[in-house]
Hints:
Distance between the termini: 37 Å
Structural class: mainly beta
Shape: globular
Number of strands: 11
Order of helices and strands: EEEEEEEEEEE
Amino acid sequence: VQLQASGGGLVQPGGSLRLSCAASGFTFRGYYMCWLRQAPGKELEWVSGISSGGGSTSYKDSVKGRFTISRENAKNTLYLQMNSLQPEDTALYYCARYQGGPLGAKTSYHYWGQGTLVTVSS
């Protein structure tokens, strides 16, 4: 199983980025997928999740209306469109395959990508 996240970078406040996560080694369309993030010196936090077919999404309150999660099962790819980025969104962003349990718990995810760094700064 591999999850390869990409698309991070340095962006000014108010800017946008689109993260991608290329999945391989498992039946991508069969799993609920999530994005999580960890800011420097802070705990890991769940950001967003999407059902296996893409019809149901959920978001952390602080990103609702700014972030959009989506997936292309034909391409085994997960996305996170991030708009109106703020300095507090600065973090290492991970895509992960959800296995069950609390969304914010590391133990709920069996497989993780390597993370892609998002830095929001002027």
